[in-house]
Design brief:
The complex is a heterodimer. Chain A has a single domain, classed as Aromatic compound dioxygenase (Protocatechuate 3,4-Dioxygenase, subunit A, Sandwich), CATH 2.60.130. Chain A is mainly β. Chain A is built from 2 helices and 12 strands. The longest helix of chain A is centred in the last third of the chain and has 5 residues, at 181-185. Chain A is 4% helix and 28% strand. In chain A, strands 2, 3, 4, 5, 8, 9, 10, 11 and 12 form a 9-stranded mixed beta sheet that branches. A two-stranded antiparallel sheet of chain A has the order 6-7. Chain A is globular and about 50 Å long. In chain A, a hairpin with a 3-residue loop joins β6 and β7 (137-140). By secondary structure, chain B is mainly β. Chain B has a single domain (19-26, 35-171), classed as Protocatechuate 3,4-Dioxygenase, subunit A (Sandwich). In chain B, β5 (113-118) and β6 (126-130) form a beta hairpin. Chain B is globular and about 40 Å long. Classes of the chains: A mainly beta, B mainly beta. At the A-B interface, β1, α1, β3, β4 and β9 of A face α1, β2, β5 and β10 of B. The structure holds fe (ii) ion. Residues 140, 143, 145 of chain A line the site of fe (ii) ion (FE2).
Chain lengths: 225, 183
């Protein structure tokens, strides 16, 4: 739900009136072609893309999957930007005052573009959980933030992925802004042993489904989705 | 249940550290995304749109990330459309876009700039439209906006500060809560 009192920041920031549903026009059915952005060779590799003489510390993982639309069509050329805390749960951000240490070899920023079949891949370290001021000291489950541009501006998505088996997921007020357990489950990346890099890193699969074309005024985005 | 269809991945808040992933230059990292902003060659009247996003207590959002998407000056979208991204100022909360005046992309309807707002406490990014005060009558007749009360429609119209310089404040709550769209 937009207003979720358990997540205190929503109290003054969630609009209180219902969204105004309109049909998509040619503007929202198209979008910026950011998939054509020239990428640096290490943009998708957070273990190395801020390294100053050594790899980032932490549990080495691949995060990979496929970008699809609601009709299961792959979305090629989707720009995916990610940001995350380091293995100790600390962000490389001036506003993060958590006492856990920074990692000089890790900035927590990456990006990639999906290929012709909508597939994407990042190499990174598993972020640590961290405390935040909300109902005293709440804790965020380990998570990676993602921003995705599909083919249409109406498909714009910013979300967070979580990791299978994390006991903090059901305790998190931000996760619980989503009332539907099946929808929460769609934010959980699955351990995928077949796609590990032997003697190097584990792999988590996370598929991303972008909204399709809306035809009528009456099919609206479910609240909290 | 819809058969043969996938369910949309739910949105989650961009959180307070959105800058790391979407505007790394703001925290002293090299920019990753090709410098967001109107294409240098985009023709048309250069305009400035600036404003502030206010919460329900009237405080500016200093952590917000904003994006615009609009037709070019001839009303063309798709490959000719113009995208830009900016951050609210860390001290004042002010945002500012330098772009070109869009042409109408819908035959006979007023031109607008689509504006998205991402921030801590916003679970699903907010989508609104910036209209121009020169087109107030067309805005009133826009089939997308006709069902709105006149006061609500007024929240979608920028104020002219000077020639080619507009102010568009966003109110997340309150008597003049901005209209947000489900598109
Ligand atoms: Fe986070």
């Amino acid at each position: 739900m937009p207003l979720s009192p358990g997540y205190k920041s929503t109290v003054l920031r969630a609009p209180l009136r219902p969204l105004h549903a309109v049909e998509q026009s040619a503007l929202e059915r198209s979008g910026p072609a950011l998939g054509n952005t020239a990428l640096g060779p290490l943009d998708h590799d957070l273990i190395r893309n801020a390294a100053q003489g050594g790899d980032a510390l932490g549990e080495r993982i691949y995060v990979f999957g496929q970008v699809l639309d609601e009709n299961a069509r792959p979305v090629p050329n989707a720009l995916i930007e990610i940001w995350q805390a380091n293995a100790a749960g600390r962000y490389a951000h001036v506003k993060d005052g958590y006492l856990a240490p920074l990692d000089p070899n890790f900035s927590g920023c990456g990006r990639c573009v999906s290929d012709g079949e909508g597939r994407y891949l990042f190499r990174t370290i598993k972020p640590g959980p961290y405390p935040w001021p909300n109902n005293g000291s709440d804790w965020r489950p380990a998570h990676i933030h993602l921003s995705i541009f599909g083919e249409a501006f109406a498909q714009r998505l910013v979300t967070q992925l979580y990791f299978e088996g994390d006991p903090l997921i059901p305790l998190c007020p931000i996760v619980n802004t989503i009332p539907d357990p099946a929808a929460i489950d769609r934010l959980v990346a699955r351990l995928d042993m077949r796609n590990q890099e032997p003697f190097d890193c584990l792999a988590y699969r996370f598929d991303i489904v972008l909204r399709g074309r809306r035809q009528t005024h009456f099919e609206t985005r479910p609240e909290g989705a | 249940m819809m058969i043969g269809k996938l369910q949309e991945t739910p949105s989650q808040t961009a959180g307070p550290y959105v800058h790391i992933g979407t505007a790394p230059q703001s925290i002293g990292r090299p920019p990753l995304t090709g410098q967001p902003g109107p294409r240098a060659e985009a023709e048309g009247e250069r305009i400035i749109i600036e404003g502030t996003v206010f919460d329900g207590a009237g405080a500016p959002l200093r952590d917000a990330m904003l994006e615009i998407w609009q037709a070019d000056s001839a009303g063309r979208v798709g490959a000719e459309g113009l995208f830009a991204r900016c951050l609210a100022d860390f001290d004042t909360g002010r945002y500012r876009f330098e772009t070109v005046r869009p042409g109408p992309h819908r035959e006979g309807q007023p031109a607008h700039v689509a504006l998205l707002i991402f921030a801590r406490g916003i679970n699903l990014h907010l989508h609104t439209r910036i209209h121009f005060p020169e087109e107030r009558e067309r805005v009133a007749a826009d089939p997308d906006l006709r069902r709105l009360e006149p006061e609500a429609r007024e929240t979608l119209i920028a104020t002219q500060e000077a020639a080619g310089h507009y102010r568009f404040d966003v109110h997340l709550q309150g008597a003049n809560e901005t209209v947000f769209f489900d598109i």
